[in-house]
From TrEMBL:
Keywords: Cobalamin biosynthesis, Glycosyltransferase, Transferase. This is Nicotinate-nucleotide--dimethylbenzimidazole phosphoribosyltransferase. The gene is cobT. Pathway: Nucleoside biosynthesis; alpha-ribazole biosynthesis; alpha-ribazole from 5,6-dimethylbenzimidazole: step 1/2. Belongs to the CobT family. The keyword Cytoplasm does not apply. It comes from Aeromicrobium marinum DSM 15272. One of its GO terms (biological process) is cobalamin biosynthetic process. GO terms for molecular function: nicotinate-nucleotide-dimethylbenzimidazole phosphoribosyltransferase activity.
Length: 341
């Protein structure tokens, strides 16, 4: 596929010059200064506009491996949480309300009919649950392509609604297992290097989860050379849709603030689907999951926060939104040294 157009290098250079000219000691803004330069480059303007319109989409789906002892919670939690998002009572909902971020939840592969939820929530549903990746493919190729296309369509919808910054959230019991497998497959890593405790499993369950990831990677074999085949064999409908969403955002020139390991695994696949997409991503926070740090490092991204968060839902990215807003305002509104001397 053609490479994604990167953020404006001219705006980046101009922003770096403006940053150096602010009435602050050299380097005093630290990583907030670096973040401000990135925001300006993504907007293609200096000083950058205030980052006011932030929109998050939570991609929900169930995963066949959840029936095989890889999670501390049952799959029934997934549909329950979809309903909780809709009532505004989830953790990410609280953060979104605090920071004036619009949140939308979509069912791509929840293993439930979700009776009574608004029709728009299921408008892009691909299937009920995914295959257990250590035993079978997660999806068919057609399902993977449909999920990717759905994600791109949702990104277009959110951008048309005025989004200046997008966030991809996730909900799905067992989803850190396919996320770990996708990172390992994309980076050529072992199951031991990428597998973490997810919802807080103990040592024995972690050993079992690692074995599941190892078996999944062996089953997928050389198919992981292709990103669509990687998602088909090792992903899920929700993660494939998230990858399409992130690729679509980058292709449209809209920046994204990444969340935890599931969102970052999707980002890694988005960068494979749309080479160069990672330049449009910033890392909201560092997850305790080892796959997340490895994937971020491969994309050259350093997390803004390190709070030990492992909630998912987009919560870590939401927590970092005030930093993005502050960075843009600092570059725009701080006096220049030349103005006060």
């Amino acid at each position: 596929m053609p490479a994604v157009t990167p953020p404006s290098s001219a705006a980046r250079d101009e922003a770096a010059t403006r940053l150096a000219g602010l009435a602050t000691p050299a380097g005093a803004l630290g990583r907030l200064g670096d973040l401000a330069v990135w925001v300006a480059a993504t907007q293609g303007r200096v000083p950058p506009e205030p980052v006011e319109r932030v929109r998050a989409v939570i991609f929900a789906g169930d995963h066949g491996v959840a029936d095989h002892g890889v999670s501390a919670y049952p799959k029934a939690v997934t549909p329950a949480m979809v309903r909780t998002f809709l009532t505004g009572r989830a953790g990410v909902s609280v953060l979104a309300a605090q920071h004036a971020v619009t949140v939308r939840v979509l069912d791509l592969g929840v293993d439930d009919d979700l009776e009574g939820v608004p029709a728009d929530v299921q408008r892009h549903k691909v299937r009920r649950g995914s295959g257990a990746i250590h035993l079978e493919d997660a999806l068919t190729t057609d399902e993977t392509l449909a999920a990717i296309a759905a994600g791109r369509s949702v990104a277009a919808d959110e951008i048309a609604a005025g989004a200046q910054l997008l966030i991809s959230g996730d909900m799905g019991i067992g989803n850190t297992t396919p996320a770990a497998a996708l990172v390992a497959a994309s980076l050529g890593l072992t199951a031991e290097a990428v597998t973490g405790r997810g919802t807080g499993i103990g040592d024995a369950a972690l050993d079992h989860k690692t074995a599941v990831v190892r078996q999944a990677l062996a089953r997928a074999g050389e198919r992981v050379a292709d990103p669509v085949d990687t998602l088909t064999s090792l992903g899920s409908a929700d993660i494939a849709a998230s990858a399409g969403f992130l690729a679509g955002a980058a292709e449209a020139g809209v920046p994204v603030l990444l969340d935890g390991v599931v969102a970052v695994a999707a980002a890694l696949l988005a960068d494979r689907l749309a080479p160069g997409a990672a330049a449009w991503f910033a890392a909201g926070h560092r997850s305790p999951e080892p796959a997340q740090g490895l994937a971020l490092a491969s994309m050259g991204l350093q997390p803004l926060l390190d709070l030990g968060l492992r909630l998912g839902e987009g919560s870590g990215a939401l927590a970092a939104v005030p930093l993005v807003r502050s960075a843009a305002l600092l570059l725009a509104d701080t006096a220049l040294l030349s103005e006060i001397l």
